[in-house]
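User: Okay, second chain of the day. Same drill as before: sequence in, structure tokens out.
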Amino acid sequence: MEQEGLFSTGLGPGPAVPAGSLSGADEDHTGQPLAVRMRPRTLDEIVGQEHLLGPGTPLRQLVEHDQPMALVLWGPPGTGKTTLAYVVSRATQRRFVELSAVTAGVKDVRNVIDGARRELVRSGVGTVLFVDEVHRFSKTQQDALLPGVENRWVSLVAATTENPYFALISPLLSRSLLLTLEPLDDDSISQVVRRALSDERGLAGTVELADDAHDHLVRLAGGDARRVLTYLEAAAGAVAGTADPTVTLEVAEKAVDRAAVRYDRDGDQHYDVISAMIKAIRGSDVDAGLHYLARMAEAGEDPRFLARRLVILASEDIGLADPTALTTAVAATQAVQFIGWPEAQITLAQAVIALALAPKSNSVVKAIGSAVSDVRAGLAGPVPPHLRDSHYAGSKKLGHGTSYTYAHDDPRGVVAQQYAPDAVAGKQYYEPGTRGAESDYAERYARLRAIIHGR
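Assistant: Same drill. Structure tokens below.
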């Protein structure tokens, strides 16, 4: 969760943070975690996310023109969702109120919106309402946000790690600007580390970081700025007050309790190792697949990246030879999302074993590749008239749907009928394989094609 409670005004006693005095931005940082002390204060201090922060982008325009807004920030942890909310509040000189969807209810939401409306009428000062983990809100709770957004009593900034098209109600999403935050690349994480080492709010030059230790921390961060600052703070604490305040690789390893695996997440080895894992699974070598999985897991590779590659492999290299392979890979991906390390590596290992042992077929990827090639070559053409939508007045006059034959009316459940456009009628893209369950599809596929094409 994105720094729940940090600078939070809460809902109990105490006022909202006033405009221009965002807690943590200009105050004494003594005792606060390094990740809090180094939180950016302006849009220009934010590292990464250039696609959102560049000149002329919608976010910059909204902030620079101080307009009421509704933003949904979607991205993985540590990419700056909470930071953006605070910076927006500071840049627009508005009050800032934070709610956590984990603890807030409908009454809390309504209280905040009513308070924002009263303050807007009384003083003309607007309110930024930041809702962390908004995907945890029920439909009723999300509905409670709508009056404040529609009437612009609040500028809503809602953060989520879940797909907002599934997690948020349509009325709220349609009234919001959706901004997708990407995991920070290693250059951006490295910039975060260097700034923390030198900045007065951070370590202020009190420690040195060896190059290999620096690379190790960046590698383990997995695109998460908060994580790398937490690791750096632990490593710096280990050498504080010593004769040589240098964080070596050994110190960094001990500080984060992880072994430094010789594996470059952004270089040739990164691509070599993931390529080797995929090829080992494709080649049905279970043990080699597990080796490469362990190698990347110990190096701090993002488990979601590994899971996504397994999902792709399930269709690309197994496909219909074992239709359950995709189900296994997708289930592993979902499990990774809510289990996390280190237990998630067990789930990924199960998926690697199952996919390696499964019969292999590349007929699916070849089929879609052939179809895409034809489309790109201009072989498209209009949809046959009998397949066009006929659920509107006047469709019959256009001849739409009039000669369509309903397949369920035939005892076989399939009828002779042209479905493809003329340009590709009769084309065969799918060539069934002969391994595993797909061997059963070959006979059925041939029989269905013969009926459909009237042979």
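The two ends are 60 Å apart (CA to CA).

User: Thanks, on to the next one.
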